[in-house]
Amino acid sequence: MLAFNITVILAQFSQKIEAIDTWGDRLLVGTSEGALLVYDVRERVSLIDSHKAFAKKPIQQIHAVEKLNLIVSLSDGFISVHSLPSFTLRSVLQKSKGAHMFSVDTTRSPVGLCVGIKKRLSIFQWDGNDFVETKQFELPDQAKTVVWSDNSLCVGYKKEYNLINISSGIMSHIFPVNKSSPTANRLTGLDLLLLGKESLSILVGLDGKPSRKCGLTWSEPPVVLGYSFPFIIAITSKGAEIQLLPGPSSDRSNDRRMQLQQTLPAVKQGRFICDKNDIYIASTSQVWRLVPVPLLAQIDALEKERHFDEALLLCENLPDTPSSSSSSSSLSSTMGGPYEDLSGIKAARIQSVKRAHAVQLFKEGHYEQSLGYFAELE
Question: Which 3 state secondary structure label does DSSP give 236?
Answer without folding.
Answer: strand
